[in-house]
């Protein structure tokens, strides 16, 4: 049987500033959140402002591929 295409998909949000700082080795880790989005309502990549414990402030978290 064919696998059905779910409308709601699980996505991973990753801190954008931690990813940039990991090149400089300033950050001790990368903040990630797991959430869901509706594929029909939001076809583009999702970006939300979330708290990053490594940056100790609210930063933009963008959707990454699994």
UniProtKB/TrEMBL annotation:
SUPFAM superfamilies: Zn-binding ribosomal proteins (SSF57829)
GO MF terms held by the record: structural constituent of ribosome
Pfam families the record matches: Ribosomal_L33
Entry's localization field: Plastid, Chloroplast
Source organism, top-level taxon: Eukaryota
Biological processes annotated in GO: translation
Main location: plastid
UniProt entry keywords in alphabetical sequence: Chloroplast, Plastid, Ribonucleoprotein, Ribosomal protein
GO cellular component, one term: chloroplast
Family: Belongs to the bacterial ribosomal protein bL33 family.
NCBIfam families listed in its UniProt record: PRK00504.1, PRK00595.1, rpmG_bact
Record-given protein name: Large ribosomal subunit protein bL33c
């Amino acid at each position: 049987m064919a696998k059905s295409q779910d409308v709601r998909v699980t996505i991973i949000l990753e801190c954008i500033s931690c990813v940039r700082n990991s090149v400089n080795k300033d950050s001790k880790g990368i903040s990630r959140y797991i959430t869901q989005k509706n594929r029909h309502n939001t076809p583009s990549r999702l970006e939300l402002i979330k708290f990053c414990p490594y940056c100790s402030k609210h930063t933009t978290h963008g959707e990454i591929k699994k």
